[in-house]
């Protein structure tokens, strides 16, 4: 273990407080900042090999070439999609105008035929109640409304024409392979190269993507399911029609029925807003980079199938990484029919490539650099004293006052931070992993603090399997947000995750959502909407996670902990962590 002065030198290198100009490219430190004429991922990879920062690997070079081919097609595809969205916007506007005109004509014809004579015999002012929001109008859909809706849609097709055809999208990439073989690195090089070329693009880790899906579902239900929002969205144009009030009542009922139909298709609606850059008025191509794609439970399969299918059908280019080939993601056969349809679509829209390398390059980089000076062990007096010195030294360096803080999470929840100082925070293992918290809490911590101190990390066995699961999720999020981690632990990294004869270490209730009561309701509703049984949750989840699956999770966490000690990773903290991208 190095002396404090030597450790401080590494910390100063990684945690310089001088902030760079803000850019949106958040990826690993081997990704160079974007330039006006991006050269592409293969060029970036070759340069890093020439500089000696990466070891040449033929498997990685093959994947980098595939990314380069995809990159070369994107500029033309972006222009095609910009033209398509102009045509689509015009078509949608014309269709909506015609739809409203047809409804008014239908209503007036019903009035002429005397259909209204039997309505509202009690003199109820239904439209007034609708608009004022005293109570929701009771609209019984029935077969009649469904037939009326379908006939109107057919008429619109004949009047306006069919939806504009989407340009043929370049095939995306699905990259799979062992831990540390370079999947995420290569994907991030590609994502970095597209900055400034593709306006609508996102990069998500599995946990973050699932949280975003849940958050968007909750927002959609709140905005479209509440009586108030439905009332005013309907009344805004109906009330200004120069027609009889009974005609308005009928049109309002038809409009409400349309909204009810849309509520039954929530996943496509969420997908339509999943990648859109709300700050950009202009629409174009979209790219989704999805790291560590998994199918941990029934909800993940249903949600991913609905979201991804919609995105692929509407021209999104998907780039995904995983430890498994697509057909091996769902080894226990949960919701097999839905899963198989999703995988068939994935294989149609993506080139499937295996990185065959057996080398964990994170470990190679660690061996060729410094000791693991930020991971201190064992838990003896000397280590604890060293840990305290490092904490004092880093907080003194930033010169701020130690305070507690409360961070917003989601669904109105918060997470408390006992000690923090200008982007640096301190926790015990028990505080972060010994309570019922999940990925949402860890993401909030990782986004707000560039340096995290965690003390007293124990060796993990079956007896503390839930804590081990949370710790693995925590490591994922600290790594994804490029945090500097300083920790004290009972054992070396490679001995941290221990199984026992009593059984496997993992035992999931829900892999990434643990305390979200609102989220639990949303998950149940989505499964119910899709007529999905509860099979596979939670008992099938435990069954699904075989020893091999656990081995992937443990190996990934250990590999990432090792990489987080290297100078290459630490150099990237001040450039890539969200804290340093905040406006001054």
From TrEMBL:
Short name of any one Pfam family annotated for the protein: AFG1_ATPase
Residue ranges the record marks as coiled coil: 74-113
Domain of life of the source: Eukaryota
Keyword Coiled coil recorded: yes
MF-aspect GO terms: ATP binding; ATP hydrolysis activity
A GO cellular component entry from the record: cytoplasm
UniProt KW keywords: ATP-binding, Coiled coil, Nucleotide-binding
Protein family: Belongs to the AFG1 ATPase family.
UniProt protein name: AAA+ ATPase domain-containing protein
Lineage: Eukaryota, Viridiplantae, Streptophyta, Embryophyta, Tracheophyta
């Amino acid at each position: 273990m190095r002396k404090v002065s030597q450790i401080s030198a590494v910390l100063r290198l990684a945690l310089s407080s001088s902030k760079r100009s803000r850019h949106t490219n958040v990826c690993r430190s081997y990704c160079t900042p974007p330039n006006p004429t991006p050269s592409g991922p293969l060029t970036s990879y070759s340069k890093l090999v020439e500089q000696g920062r990466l070891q040449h690997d033929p498997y990685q070079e093959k994947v980098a070439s595939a990314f380069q081919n995809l990159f070369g097609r994107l500029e033309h595809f972006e222009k095609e999609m910009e033209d398509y969205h102009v045509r689509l916007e015009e078509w949608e506007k014309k269709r909506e105008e015609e739809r409203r005109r047809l409804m008014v004509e239908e209503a007036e014809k019903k009035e002429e035929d005397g259909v209204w004579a039997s309505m509202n015999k009690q003199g109820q002012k239904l439209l007034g109640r609708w608009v004022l929001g005293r109570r929701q109008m009771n609209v019984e859909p029935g077969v009649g409304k469904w037939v009326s809706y379908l006939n109107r849609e057919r008429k619109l097709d004949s009047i306006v024409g069919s939806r504009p055809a989407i340009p043929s999208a370049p095939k995306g990439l699905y990259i799979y392979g062992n831990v540390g073989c370079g999947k995420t690195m290569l994907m991030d090089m590609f994502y970095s190269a597209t900055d400034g070329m593709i306006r609508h693009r996102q990069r998500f880790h599995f946990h973050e993507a699932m949280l975003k899906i849940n958050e968007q579902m909750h927002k959609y239900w709140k905005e479209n399911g509440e009586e108030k929002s439905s009332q005013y969205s309907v009344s805004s144009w109906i009330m200004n029609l120069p027609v009889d009030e009974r005609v308005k009542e009928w049109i309002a009922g038809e409009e409400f029925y349309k909204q009810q139909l849309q509520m039954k298709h929530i996943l496509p609606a969420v997908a339509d807003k999943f990648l859109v850059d709300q700050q950009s008025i202009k629409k174009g191509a979209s790219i989704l980079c999805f790291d560590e794609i998994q199918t941990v439970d029934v909800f993940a399969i249903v949600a991913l199938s609905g979201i991804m299918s919609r995105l692929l059908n509407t021209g999104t280019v998907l780039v995904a990484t995983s430890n498994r080939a697509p057909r091996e993601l769902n080894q226990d056969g949960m919701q097999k029919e839905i899963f198989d349809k999703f995988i068939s679509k994935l294989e149609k829209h993506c080139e499937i490539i295996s990185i065959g390398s057996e080398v964990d390059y994170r470990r190679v980089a660690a061996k060729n650099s410094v000791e693991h000076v930020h991971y201190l062990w064992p838990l003896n007096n000397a280590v604890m004293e060293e840990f305290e010195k490092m904490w004092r030294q880093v907080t003194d360096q930033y010169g701020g006052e130690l305070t507690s803080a409360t961070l917003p999470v989601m669904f109105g929840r918060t997470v408390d931070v006992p000690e923090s100082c200008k982007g640096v925070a301190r926790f015990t293992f028990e505080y972060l992993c010994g309570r019922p918290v999940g990925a949402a809490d860890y993401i909030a911590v990782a986004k707000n603090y560039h340096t995290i101190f965690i003390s007293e990390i124990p060796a993990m066995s079956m007896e503390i399997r839930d804590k081990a699961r949370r710790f693995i999720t925590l490591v994922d999020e600290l790594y994804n947000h490029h945090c500097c981690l300083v920790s004290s632990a009972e054992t070396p990294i490679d001995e941290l995750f221990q199984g026992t004869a009593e059984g496997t270490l993992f035992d999931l209730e829900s892999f990434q959502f643990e305390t979200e009561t609102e989220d639990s309701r949303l998950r149940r509703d989505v499964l119910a909407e899709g007529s999905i049984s509860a099979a596979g949750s939670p008992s099938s989840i435990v069954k699904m996670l075989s020893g091999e699956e656990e081995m992937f999770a443990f190996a990934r966490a250990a590999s990432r902990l090792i990489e987080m000690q290297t100078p290459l990773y630490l150099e990237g903290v001040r450039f890539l962590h969200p804290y340093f991208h905040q406006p001054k």
